[in-house]
Amino acid sequence: MSVYKLDYLDQLEAEAIHILREVAGQFERPALLFSGGKDSITLVHLAEKAFRPGRFPFPLVHVDTGHNFPETIQFRDELIERIGERLIVGYVQDAIDAGKVEEQTGKNASRNALQTVTLLDVIAEHQFDACIGGARRDEEKARAKERIFSVRNEFGQWEPKRQRPELWNIYNGRIRKGENVRVFPISNWTEQDVWNYIQREQIAIPEIYFAHERECIVRGGKLMAASPFLNMDAEDVPFRAKIRFRTIGDITCTAAVASDADTLDAVIREIGDSKISERGARMDDLVSESAMEERKKNGYF
Amino acid sequence: MDILRFLTAGSVDDGKSTLIGRLLYDTDNILEDQLEAIERSNRKNDDGSINLAVLTDGLKSEREQGITIDVAYKYFSTAKRKFIIADTPGHIQYTRNMVTGASTANLAIILVDARKGLVEQTHRHSFIASLLGIPHVVLAINKMDLVDYDQAVFDKIANDYRHFVEQLAIHQYTFIPVSALKGDNIASRSAEMPWYDGPSLLEFLEEVPLASKGDVNLENSRFPVQWVIRPHAEQYHDYRGYAGKITSGIFRIGDKVTVEPSGIPSHIKAIEVGGQKTEVAFAPMAAVLHLEDEIDVGRGDTLVKSDGQVYVTQTLEGDICWMDNRPLNPDLKYIIQHNSKQTLCYLRDVLYKVNVNSLEKNYTDTSLGLNDIGRVVIQTAEPLVVDLYEDNRSNGSAIIIDERSNVTVGAVMIRSAE
């Protein structure tokens, strides 16, 4: 066996860094979409490897639903402070105040779907031509079909039937004015790969990924964090439980799992043993078999 | 642990999706909620067992039509390897999708229905695997349960294939008798075929050595520059790092290199990988290289180790797969992208078109439309720094972009250069 052999995590890392540098080389106004979740945190770590000791050739962009886990926002601000890069925040509340979108009503109301409008507004305002995101193909079956350089039309829409062929490691980022490209450098990573990488690289992540006590309620068989943003009624009786989050999204649509895993090792062990996929905890995906595909067609990332 | 990228080729009826579903299922890579989603979708096999094919059809239109249109990437892993599957449609109208999936694959699984033997599709799929230089081919002879697990059926198909494959550039191939539906020889060896003493499909995928030049090339050292790192901070006043990915070969501090296409020589002064200084870096690492001399190097240039032939050329000849509804137009300017370099080009001369089923070359009708494959001479506006595809997949490939639509319309495997 040759000694010139790369471990699989190194291969995935090299692929992602190559993609990030292609974004830097091909676009005039790129941005990195940062949610505060582990996948976008991993992207920031990869960007440091790709561009240091230089600056990032793009700002970070956070689409803030206003319905956040407080721990996520604190983590975000500390991260920005540490890396010294620019953060742009787009507020869903602004779109609501401007009457561009209407807040959902009812018990399961969530601002998750409203994010798309704010995202497209931020893209338009800053004239971003490429937005880097942490989506992975193993997450969901529509994502399994999406390109690494995924072109969106003037309306921000993904057109699955008009996708460009993407061959070898050659990325075609040519677009017309008004179009933009969503770029997914960790497309080929699985959830397990991300966790293994976080462990290997000792990447800091928000505390809510680890087991902690929290006020919860049960909705549709899922554990949800009790919060002022969740429309609760008499049936929703909060109780304290030891839980952690496997994925971080809007607080109103991200379910928790009961867990004692309070270290990275324990979390990785638990995921390895898990019989449920990561997006099984995302209420937004359980709506229908095509939920993700439909959202992407509307401009979601 | 390393990564094996493979593609599966076969028509809907060959049970390709079932094979992938079976691989994922038998390696515990399908989870309960995904199974529930399949149950919810209410598509069952005739015998009431769950339809594993549903797992791989990602788009609504695909599920509605019951066919795979686009390349879907699937992931699973065992203790030995991480696997990336490019699940590609088999029909001739999706040749371009198979070419796409094949471009990054180390291995192709070509499915054959044991009842039918080699068919036109087998020829086409093998031809594409050969054209794209996939180093390893597995002919999975499927539906053995429907021919009573008969060794004679298997032997005949294997013999036919050995004969056929002689005309192709496929050097490593193997035959495995399977039943995707029943799970025979997929994740574990089948008790139904005691006459077969080879590995199960999964064992083969776990063990096949990824050491050929088509898997990773450690001989021809190439470093296409993607980005120049020049920090403005005072402590990095003299820092000038060339960021890119080593697409092939090995670079060490002190190595003599030339910057192509300008041809200016220099030496490697320092190497960084992931922010750490290192003495040596090799493909496929992302790295930052520093040169001894202050010379003009930018995106699109390639650092080449002065240890072998590289072509710096404006005239290329290559096989091309056409991927657009609008046919190749010899009078039109296109953009050719080779690694990080884009330049204008003409595709003036199509030498012949290949019938992808019979492999015959047509020298009279040389029009190339969607899914056609032919041989073309390419003139580029600026010089490219290339290798031949059979020597170096990463530096011997390019894509063609239509300036009008910005769409990728062609895939090029470079076969000769001046």
Description:
The complex is a heterodimer of chains A (about 300) and B (about 425). With about 300 residues, chain A is of the alpha/beta class. Helix content of chain A is about 30%, strand content about 15%. In chain A, helix 2 links the parallel strand 1 (about 30-35) and strand 2 (about 60-65). Chain A starts with 7 loop residues before the first helix and ends with a helix. In chain A, about 55% of the residues are buried. Chain B is of the alpha+beta class and about 425 residues long. Chain B has seven helices and 22 strands. In chain B, the strands form four sheets. Chain B has a six-stranded mixed β-sheet, sandwiched between helices.
Helix and strand topology:
The complex is a heterodimer of chains A (301) and B (418).
Chain A: H1 8-26, E1 30-33, H2 38-51, E2 60-64, H3 70-83, E3 87-91, H4 92-97, H5 115-126, E4 130-132, E5 149-152, E6 180-183, H6 191-201, E7 212-219, E8 222-225, E9 239-245, E10 255-258, H7 264-273, H8 291-297
Helix pairs in contact in A: 1-2, 6-7
Chain B: E1 2-9, H1 16-26, H2 32-41, H3 60-65, E2 72-77, E3 81-87, H4 95-103, E4 107-113, H5 120-131, E5 136-142, H6 151-165, E6 172-177, H7 201-207, E7 222-229, E8 241-245, E9 250-252, E10 256-260, E11 264-273, E12 276-278, E13 280-282, E14 286-291, E15 302-305, E16 311-322, E17 333-338, E18 341-354, E19 361-362, E20 373-386, E21 397-401, E22 408-417
Parallel strand pairs in B: 1-3, 1-4, 4-5, 5-6
Antiparallel strand pairs in B: 2-3, 7-8, 7-15, 8-14, 9-13, 10-11, 10-15, 11-12, 11-14, 16-20, 16-22, 17-18, 17-21, 18-19, 18-20, 21-22
